[in-house]
Amino acid sequence: MSKFHYFALCALFPVAGYVFADGFGVKSGNPLITGTPYEVHDGTRPQPRIVENAGSVSVKPPADAIVLFGGENLDAWTSNNGPAAWEVKNGAMVAAKADVVTKQSFGAIQLHAEWRAPAERPVNGQSGGNSGIFLMGRYEVQVLQSHNNKTYPDGQAGSLYGQCPPLVNATTAQGEWQSYDVIFTPPVYEGETVKEPAYVTIIHNGVVVQNHRPYLGPSSHKTLASYPKNHPETGPIRLQFHGDPMEFRNFWVRPLGEYDSEK
Ligand code: MG
């Protein structure tokens, strides 16, 4: 296809143009993901099956939960060691200006959060409806408006960004609240050797989209993730500001230990 024809096609079919622009349907040229025939952000990787569902499952924080955002203030969060850069509007925390990180650090946790992309905002692949929940500040659970919005599958909602697509696409319409229930365990090291990778289970709108999935290492963009030699035992949760006013609410965690231990 000539450049002229390509641009003419994009003008006639803007969606196709956007899709090309986002790499959907084409190889990325990034490294292969270990154990798969697919590259990091591979646009030819099969799109996860869509599962229609009833939408967000709102779970009130149990008595032992640490509420990180209950609808009123950003006291649990900081940006660049200063006040949290996000805004509170109508009981939601709204992404703006910079990432926010929790003041507290966590290791193994159960996490509940609800999120949404504003209804009328134009969304195109990775643009327009993007955030992310970085567990320990390192392991991204991708947040993306993925309803009627195709992108490379390892970058859609419920993916381990750059590593593993969700089992299915459980995203409901833009503007509706989505829920994530996440169970995360950090990697286990012996000295500088990884004995166990970090694992995550993700339930999106009541639908399992990751089932005890190992991370290949801390999340990365366009490169193959790998574990560093040194790794902390805990880390803060970081929420990504990707330029989009994504909203979060009812955000809580429960640190997980053994039933008969003090922690
Ligand atoms: Mg993201």
Give the helices and strands as they follow along the chain: HHEEEEEEEEEEEEEEEEEE
* Ligand identities: magnesium ion
Instruction: Give the N-to-C terminal Cα separation.
Output: 62 Å
Would you tell me the overall average pLDDT?
Answer: 92
Number of strands: 18
Number of domains: 1
Radius of gyration: 19 Å
Estimated helix fraction: under 10%
By CATH, the topology is: Jelly Rolls
Low-confidence parts = 1-21
Number of helical elements: 2
Q: The biggest beta sheet, please?
A: 8 strands, antiparallel
CATH architecture: Sandwich
Strand content: 25-35%
Summarize the structure in words.
This protein is mainly beta and 263 residues long. 7% of the residues lie in helices and 34% in strands. Helix 1 crosses helix 2 (14-21). It is globular, with a radius of gyration of 19 Å. Strand 5 (87-89) and strand 6 (92-94) form a beta hairpin. The strands form four sheets. Strands 2, 5, 6, 8, 12, 15, 16 and 18 form an eight-stranded antiparallel β-sheet that branches. The chain has a single domain (48-255), classed as Jelly Rolls (Sandwich), CATH 2.60.120. Bound molecules: magnesium ion. Magnesium ion is lined by residues 130-132, 142-143, 161, 240, 242. Magnesium ion binds at residues 130-132, 142-143, 161, 240, 242.
Key words describing this protein structure:
263 residues, Jelly Rolls, eight-stranded antiparallel β-sheet, globular, binds magnesium ion
